[in-house]
Amino acid sequence: MQRLKLLVILAALGCAAILLTGCPGDQNDGAETTDTRGTTNGAETTDPRGTTNIAETTDPRGTTAAKPVIYLYPTDTMQVSVTLDLSGQLTCTYPGYADGWDVTAKPDGTLTNQADGKEYSYLYWEGVCDTQYDFSKGFVVRGQDTAAFLQAKLSALGLTAKEYNEFIVYWLPQMQDNPYNLISFQSDAYTDTAVLDITPEPDSLLRVFMAYKPLEQYEAVEPQVLPAFEREGFTVVEWGGSCVEP
Questions:
Q1: Over the chain, what HEC string results?
Q2: How far apart are CA 232 and CA 234, in angstroms?
Q3: pLDDT number for residue 119
Q4: In this predicted model, what pLDDT tens digit does every residue of 148-188 receive, in sequence order?
Q5: Gap between the Cα atoms of 168 and 161, Å rounded
Q6: What angle do the packed helices 161-175 and 146-157 form, to 10 degrees?
């Protein structure tokens, strides 16, 4: 009988502990916590639609320059060296950057990386920096109109359909659900931060970098005049972008 009483007392204490602390299965004993809305309060945020959105997280070291990619189009197959002088910190490169990229480039843009002998479509990098982007001129675009806007403007800037489609499929998921986006294509503010050195020197160089701010409502801004670009000889094309919180 005494043993039965002891078991009953222990069971009661266990129930009381559960009432005080919650179900053991609901406890999060890791460093990452989840709030009641279902979003994760860690370095990585969870999109309410059920997909993980890594590109929109804020890096404490500065603003992320997300997915700049570099295409090389020589007139004949040739060896090309590319180095990047970034006023910030590289966070990811593909293929691996080391002290630069050394590749064999073909006229169709196909690249063979000399470090690993593998084939690539372009050179990719991502980094963080403290660049102050210029939003004095630009475009305020409804989120739902983002795809059509980018198709028109990127084509006008000189990207081919293949290039601007690769741009759009990367950025569209991050922009289309915002009520509005303030979009400005950067020039010196970007190119002075991320300096490219390419050997041999290209005959034509196009660097398209979009900075944008999500907006809750429309704001007036002076329209940006976009320069035309003509491809001649050995051509290098780069595109990338950055989300700047308002």
A1: CHHHHHHHHHHHHHHHHHHHHCCHHHCCCCCCCECCCCCECCCCEECCCCCEECCCCCECCEEEEEEEEEEEECCCCEEEEEEEEECEEEEEEECCCCCCEEEEECCCCCEEECCCCCEECCEEEEEEECCCCCCCEEEEEEHHHHHHHHHHHHHHHCCCHHHHHHHHHHHHHHHCCCCEEEEEEECHHHHCCEEEEEECCCCEEEEEEEEEEEECCCCCCEECCCCCCCCCCCEEEEEEEEECCC
A2: 7
A3: 98
A4: 999 999 999 999 999 999 999 999 999 999 999 999 999 99
A5: 10
A6: 150
Task: Show me where the domains of the chain are located.
Answer: 63-241
Distance CA 60, CA 1 (A): 63
- Residues 25-39 pLDDT 10s: 333 333 333 333 333
- Residues 6 or more apart from 133 whose CB is under 8 A from it? 63, 184, 186, 189, 190, 211, 242, 244
Specify the pLDDT at position 242.
96
Structure tokens belonging to residue 241 = 């972008």
The distance of Cα 176 from the centroid of its chain, to the nearest Å, equals: 15
- How much is the pTM? 0.75
Amino acid at 56: E
Q: What angle do CA 233, 164, 77 make, to 5 degrees?
A: 30
Q: What number is the average pLDDT over the span 59-78?
A: 84
Task: For 230, list phi and psi in degrees, rounded to 5.
Answer: -120, 130
The count of other CB atoms within 10 Å of the CB of residue 201 is: 9
Beta strands 78-86 and 194-199 are antiparallel
Q: Are 45 and 55 in contact (CB under 8 A)?
A: no
